[in-house]
C-alpha cells in the first residue's frame, strides 16, 4: 500500500509536468507516455490509435521531449550506433568474422553519397571500433533488422525515433524497458497510415504493398505531425479517477529534489505551491 501523502506528492509532481505543456495541443498529435509504455494518436480530441511501446533501458533511458514527425522510411537500413558497434558487435566479429554476413550487416567508410560497401576480409576488423578510421556499420532491410519494416523520423537532439521491431513478444511484458533509447511500436503500420492520412497516394494498402516489395522508400509526411514524449506517473481518467504508474526512471525523485531546491516545495508543507 502506498501512503496517501506519497500519492498526493505524485499528483502534484505530475501537475507540475502538465504546466510545461502548451495550453493547446492542436487538432492532431501523437503522445507517448513513457511511464505507461503507451502511445496514442489523437485527431480532433478523439484517440484514433493506441498501442503499447517499448522504451529505453534504465541506463539508456528515453528522454522526454517534443518534436515534429516529418518523414518515414519503409524497409529502413539500421545505421548502427558507434557505441553498439564498439561494445557489442566488434567483440563478436573478432571471433566470428561471418557474423556480419549472417546478420546482413555492411561496412561502409564515411557518409558520402557515393560511398561503397567495404569487404570485411579486406580490412582488420578491429579497426571498425576506431573512430579515426571512419568505418561505420549498417544493417540491410530484412527480418533480422531491429527497426523492422517502418521507421518514423522526428528530428531531435537526442536522435530518438519511432520504429517497428521483430521482437513482438516483448510487448507482452508489463515493464517494457528493453531498447537503447528509441521507441519501438506495437502497431507501426497503423501509425504510419495515421501520419500519411492526407496523402493522396500512401494509404495503408499502399504502405503495405511498399513494404512487401522489400525496397526502401523515404516518404515525406503531407504535413508535420506534433509528437510529445512525456513522463506522467499520474493522470486523471475520463471518469475523474486518478491512474498511477511506477516511477520507472526515478524522475519523480529528481523532480521533487529540483522543486525543493528551488523552493517550489515549501519545507513546511512538502507540496508544490498552487500555480498562480
Kindly list the characteristics that best describe this protein:
single chain, 276 residues, alpha+beta, L,D-transpeptidase catalytic domain-like, 2 domains, eight-stranded mixed β-barrel, four-stranded antiparallel beta sheet, 6 helices, globular
Describe the structure.
The chain is of the alpha+beta class. The chain has six helices and 15 strands. The strands form three sheets. It has an eight-stranded mixed barrel. Strand 6 and strand 7 form a beta hairpin. The longest helix has 16 residues.
Summed up, what is this model?
The protein is α+β, with helices and mostly antiparallel strands. The protein is built from six helices and 15 strands.
CATH topology of the largest domain: L,D-transpeptidase catalytic domain-like
**Shape summary:** globular
Number of strands: 15
The whole-number mean of residue pLDDT values reads: 90
Tally of discrete structural domains: 2
Query: What is the spatial order of strands in the main beta sheet?
Result: 1-2-3-12-10-9-4-13
For the record, what is the CATH homologous superfamily label of the largest domain? L,D-transpeptidase catalytic domain-like
CATH architecture of the largest domain: Beta Barrel
Strand percentage, roughly? Answer: 25-35%
Low-pLDDT ranges: 267-276
> Portion of residues in helices?
10-25%
By CATH reckoning, the class of the largest domain would read Mainly Beta
Give the class from helix and strand content and strand pairing: alpha+beta
Helices and strands, in N-to-C order? HEEEEEHHEEEEEEEHHEEEH
- Main beta-sheet strand count, sense and barrel state: 8 strands, mixed, barrel
The span between the termini is: 33 Å
